[in-house]
Design goal:
This protein has about 325 residues and is of the alpha+beta class. It is built from eleven helices and 18 strands. Strands 9, 11, 13, 14, 17 and 18 form a six-stranded mixed sheet that branches. A four-stranded antiparallel sheet has the order 5-4-3-8. Strands 10-12-16-15 form a four-stranded antiparallel sheet. Strand 15 and strand 16 form a beta hairpin.
Length: about 325
């Protein structure tokens, strides 16, 4: 009898905590449902939102359906992003053109969530997309994302970035490569804050950089940081000056590290990018450590991968001693 009571208590507890009762399998089922719906080319914004959410009662799953459809059916527009063109960011225009800037993504997410009776706001701010941006603040914000509220507590606000989830632009913002990632849905807040900085500090959920300058001094955060839950890293500065004979030490503290069997690095980008190089590393209870000597002279990106997923990217300036 006591066991039955305990099980009932546990069930009621998870039912009362909103997102707690949602598991990965349910997200997979939502994504599969969205995939089967396809592009829905003949529907307007309201009809798409209704079609996506009508089979779900839980707001987390409704939010997931909206996020998944937008990230899989809307592309980042290279030309508009490059010129910061905001002419076609309205939801109906985004649906018509099937491409937009990050603010167009966030505006569409907000509109569809509102239609599904989910409180959602757009946040403008900053993110880094290539190593040229490390240590270099732009004059104005260069990215937008969303916060979704599922309860009255501050802890019931969640991050969503459908633009980054859709894929990526090349370094010169000329070519978009679609590649869906669910890392940017209800992301781990402290990790998201290593990757984003809002122009309004009220939207720093959890722990984040104190200033935009401090944020731009960080290395670039890859999807593996979300997957393996990066807690800390050394060096903390994203720009490393070194010489061709000195050994440099790297430490990355991960919370989820049980299946990391491969750590590799990539030097350079574009046509100058070298092949991935597997390196020797130690894993002491989630603390990944390795040493590396930058024998190649010049300034270039230094990418660290865990199980072939991008973890961190630094900017290296290496010269002879």
């Amino acid at each position: 009898m006591m066991r039955v009571i305990n099980l009932l208590f546990i069930a009621l507890f998870f039912a009362s905590t909103g997102i707690a009762q949602i598991n990965v399998k349910q997200y997979e089922n939502v994504d599969l449902y969205v995939k089967k719906l396809g592009a829905l080319p003949l529907l307007n914004v309201a009809s798409i939102a209704d079609t996506l959410t009508q089979n779900f009662t839980d707001k987390t799953l409704k939010s997931r359906a909206i996020f998944s459809w937008i990230a899989n059916n809307i592309a980042l527009d290279p030309k508009a992003t490059r010129s910061n063109d905001t002419k076609n960011i309205q939801p109906e225009n985004v649906i018509l053109n099937r491409k937009t800037t990050s603010i167009g993504f966030s505006t569409l997410v907000q509109e569809m969530c509102s239609l599904a009776d989910i409180r959602c706001l757009t946040v403008d701010g900053y993110s880094k997309f290539n190593t040229d941006q490390i240590g270099e603040m732009p004059e104005d914000f260069n990215h937008s994302w969303n916060v979704i509220q599922l309860g009255t507590s501050p802890s019931n606000w969640y991050y969503v970035d459908a633009a980054k989830a859709s894929g990526s632009l090349d370094k010169k913002f000329m070519v978009f490569t679609p590649s869906f990632s669910d890392c940017y849905f209800f992301s781990e807040k402290n990790i998201f804050n290593l990757d984003h900085f809002p122009d309004n500090s009220a939207w720093v959920l959890g722990t984040g950089s104190k200033t935009a300058k401090a944020f731009y001094d960080l290395p670039i955060i890859g999807t593996a940081s979300y997957i393996y839950k990066t807690q800390a890293f050394f060096p903390e500065q994203g720009f490393i000056k070194c010489n061709t004979t000195k050994t440099n030490s790297f430490t990355i503290k991960l919370q989820n590290n049980s299946d990391i069997s491969d750590v590799s690095i990539i030097i350079g980008d574009g046509v100058k990018q070298l092949k991935p190089e597997r390196i020797n590393f130690t894993n002491d209870n989630g603390e990944i450590k390795f040493n590396y000597t930058f024998k190649k002279e010049g300034e270039y990106p230094f990418k660290i991968l865990a199980n072939r997923n991008m973890l961190l990217t630094y900017k290296i300036e290496s010269a002879e001693d």
